[in-house]
Specification:
Layout: H1 26-42, E1 46-48, E2 58-61, E3 85-96, E4 99-105, E5 108-117, E6 120-126, E7 132-138, H2 139-152, H3 163-174
Antiparallel strand pairs: 1-2, 2-3, 3-6, 4-5, 6-7
Bound molecules: zinc ion (ZN).
Length: 188
């Protein structure tokens, strides 16, 4: 396995729609293993292929359960905590409710901002062997799936912010290097 370089915004690969995977071969499985290793090394809870410069529709997710994040209530343990997920060609088939979460992104170091998402999503996808599966996600898994599926559609989270917030974010990024205080270290 290998740790891949994470592409930082701005970069064309982050704004390009990735292509459907049609060959489920050893090369794909090696790539998926590298994505998981990269996600761990970078301390992210999710990663999309675009973020390592590859335009295949592949995302990886692993959300560790922490008994208490700083300044937060004890987090309820969900079925998806501490599980390793690989989604190839994922499609959101249904959404429900509304949820706002302060999101971070490995391609936008030190930027954390609230984004409007659906509270629940139903996803159909394939694993790295080409086996189809369906999944119903809530909470942070639902947020993470929407964030990562946006990535493979060439959409980054500042595109989901209001114009005002997106402009503030761009200014923050322009003065990168300045310390930015944040309460939530979750990056995807
Ligand atoms: Zn991201």
């Amino acid at each position: 396995m290998a740790v891949l370089d994470v592409v930082l915004w701005p970069a064309p690969v982050l704004e390009t729609r990735a292509s459907e995977v049609s060959e489920f071969n050893a090369g794909l499985r090696q790539f998926v293993a590298n994505m998981h290793e990269t996600m761990h090394a970078a301390g992210g809870i999710g990663l999309a292929a675009n973020q390592v410069g590859d335009l295949r529709r592949v995302i990886t997710i692993e959300i560790p359960w922490s008994e208490a994040r700083d300044g937060e209530e004890l987090e309820a343990k969900e079925w998806w905590h501490n599980k390793t997920f690989t989604f190839v060609n994922p499609v959101i088939t249904k959404k429900a409710g509304k949820f706002k979460f302060q999101e971070g992104c490995l391609s936008f170091p030190d930027l954390f901002e609230f984004v409007d998402r659906a509270a629940e999503v139903w996803v159909s996808a394939k694993d790295e062997h080409g086996k189809p599966f369906e999944l119903h996600a809530n909470g942070l898994l639902a947020v993470c799936l929407q964030h990562e599926i946006d990535h493979i559609d060439g959409i980054v989270f500042i595109d989901r912010m209001s114009r005002l917030k997106a402009n503030m974010a761009r200014k923050k990024l322009a003065r990168r290097g300045a310390p930015i205080t944040t309460t939530d270290p979750v990056k995807a």
